[in-house]
Give the backbone structure.
Amino acid sequence: MRTDLFNYHLPEELIAQHPLPRGESRLMVIDRSTKRIEHLNFSDLPRFLKSGDTLVLNDTRVTARRLHGLRENGLELEVFLLKPIGDRSWEALLRPGKSLRPGKTITLQNRSGEMISAMVSEVTDSGSRLIELSSSELRDSLAAWGETPLPPYIHFPLDTLQEDRYQTVYADTGGSAAAPTAGLHFTADMLDSLQENGVALAKLTLEVGIGTFRPVRTEDIENHQMHAETYVLSEECAQIVNNTEGRIVAVGTTSIRTLEACASDNESSEDNKAVRVKPKSGETRLFITPGYKFRVVDALITNFHLPRSTLLMLIASFAGYDLTMQAYHEAIENKYRFFSFGDAMFIV
């Protein structure tokens, strides 16, 4: 299938630059069976969820930070901390970083001008670096330095007091370079109310990597190499999913990829119930494209995604290509807000 089929023109003014208060975005509801598209508000979501349904949430926390620094020759350096590694290191993107081989020293600077040194210890297969600090305490302190690393299409940094707006209210486990943005719409009150009305919550973890922003550059999508992301689907999460009487509703493309990566092979439990997923952990390169047969997920809450992206291809796989592109056309006509801080879509 040609990659350019997933291209579309988006007026730049529709790329959301600032977040609205949680729960106040618009919501497009797409019914796959009737092909009907409704234009509502995210606060309307609870009326589409029923007792017995399960919302599956990705509880990853964004730990990445953007810092400024200096190379050994005194020239400026941008340091994008991705995630902590081991006891004393971070995985980081260094720009410019071509000359920064193992053994080179860099100096990092926080917003107050405080400086510390780190050594490049390794170049990874993806081109990132491992930078090593002198102690685990110093390594951990970097989590409070720098700025929240927003996606490249957002041109205004968040105020320090607003940085939690790029975390979900249920963020728990660290390791992500970007937020699972479908979850940014939920308030704690909405989640509590849903549970009171019989909707179960199941939490898994997938660490969102920087590769989520990279467009597919191959002419055919079949030739694209999917980036790897680390996930954990616990025994507790599997039990909740497997005991669900209603629908499995994935919150975000990261949740749907994890669930499908952990799908069982039509197995049954001892009491003859269907086993939808197995508890697993590891890395997934699952690339969901049109023609994929979904085995776990019944409905999906997501944002509007970049042209030519693997995320848009996943949505087209779930909703159908024609209906997806129609929905995006209507979203542009109706001036929906796009991407990370934008509006939401609920596909049933």
User: Anything to note?
Assistant: The chain has a mean pLDDT of 93. The two ends are 25 Å apart (CA to CA).
